[in-house]
Amino acid sequence: LWNTIVFGPISQLLGWLVSFLPAHDLGLAVVLLTLIVKVLLFPLTYKSLKSQIEMRKIQPEMNAIKKNFPDDKEAQARETFALYKKHNINPFSGCLPIFIQLPILFGLYYVVIAFISKTSIDVSTVFLGITDIKNPSVILAFVAGITQFIQMYFSPSMQQAANATTEGQPGFMQFQMKTMKYILPVFVTIIALKFSGIIALYW
Predict the structure, then answer these.
(1) DSSP assignment of 3-53
(2) Are 145 and 186 within 8 A, CB to CB?
(3) Spatial contact of 199 and 192, defined as CB atoms under 8 Å apart
(4) Helix, strand, coil proportions of the chain in percent (round to 5)?
(5) Phi, psi at 127, each rounded to 5°
(6) pLDDT digits (tens, 9 = 90+) for 92-151
(7) 143-171 CB burial, b ≥16 within 10 A, e <16
(8) What is the pTM of this model?
(9) Across the strands, what pairs with 131?
(10) How far apart are CA 158 and CA 150, in angstroms?
């Protein structure tokens, strides 16, 4: 199943991309493969962003629920999920694109390692003549971390958390989102430093 769904398609697509790129630049092939994956996942990403925007719109109603049931967590949860149902919002849809990309990410890592050792093409692993993506790259790792921070900072859910804090309604969700804004970029940087430049390029 792993070979059929993840390893095989990634391997074939990567081989095709490397074969026609100048100097058979493997790093550039990874970048192009990443763009293709992003395009394929765009419907899910769009749905996730739409859900986050809708969550932002119903924030006043969610605040009203907290005021109406200040000491009843069960009632808060019940009314909150009823509100989600009313507006056709899936609060977990934002996680779906990330969960789908995780097997692709690890699949890409193992594909590249296997590709380098088995291919008959004279592949260049030095991305744009700057850094060897076979090895961990400090430059790419920090670029990946900074990029992740920028994405988190400008995401609708982060803007919602910032607005709620400004209005004096920090809450657990706002605290969690603000924590993720800093923790996730650090996590991405550490993973990229531990494995190879391939991870950083994809992220």
Answers:
(1) IIIIIHHHHHHHHHHHHHSGGGBHHHHHHHHHHHHHHHTHHHHHHHHHHHH
(2) yes
(3) yes
(4) 80, 5, 20
(5) -65, 115
(6) 666 666 677 777 777 777 777 777 777 666 777 788 777 888 788 888 888 888 887 887
(7) bbbeebbeebeebbbbebbeebeeeebee
(8) 0.66
(9) 127
(10) 11
